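Hey all, quick one. A colleague (J.T.) asked me to put the S-adenosylmethionine job into the tracker so the inputs and the structure tokens live in one place instead of scattered across chat threads. No bug as far as I know, just bookkeeping. Sequence used:
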Amino acid sequence: MITHDIYKLHKEVNVYDYWIIGDDLQSCDKQVHWIYNNYSWYYILAMYFKPCKILELGVRFGYSLKSMILGSIASGTTKEKIYAYGIDNDCENLNCINIATNTLNKLEINFNLLNIDLKNIPSLNLQNFDMAHVDARHTPFETYQDLQLVKNCIKDGGIILIDDARYNNVLPGIKWFCLDNNLDYEFIESCQGIAIIKC
Ligand SMILES: C[S@@+](CC[C@H](N)C(=O)[O-])C[C@H]1O[C@@H](n2cnc3c(N)ncnc32)[C@H](O)[C@@H]1O
């Protein structure tokens, strides 16, 4: 079980969501409940897996991407080695890709954030990613589709994380994907639940 070591690391490192997001927290998120017991897990997961190439579907303001980048750096990955690629179509928050770009600019790493509607792309021409985070479309079938999209971008032994894994709009898509690809998932008890799939 990977999760045993991840819970242990989370206890030892003791990081907080508000500390990770810092000044990048947008005013519309100042009162929301889910910025608590959420991003520290992404930070710790990246500390544990030490990804260099990180892919994210559903970037929003860049909080989870920032958390994974900082976690990887905290584990010793040098900034020059890190590359992040993120997709969002700004459908929930206007201008979010630009705001996320400002956030990532401050981290001094290489990245590409693109405004793309996932509905319109049959495949992603990307390879050799160490970690992918799926957090865009939230129905079972769309979760399944997004997982199939990132699967081809991940190297053997790479990691896929899925947010909102405790909910019935996402979990069936994860189970279906694992069944079709002969993979297993483990579950982290974050605020919304994070599933971990080792490819
Ligand atoms: C839950 S938010 C992502 C939150 C982000 N991962 C974080 O924790 O900081 C979901 C994001 O997915 C994006 N999204 C939803 N449907 C999409 C689609 N069809 N194509 C691209 N992005 C989409 C939304 O615009 C939204 O910003």
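Adding what we noticed when we looked at it: The chain has a mean pLDDT of 96. Residues 2-198 form a domain with the Rossmann fold fold (CATH 3.40.50.150).
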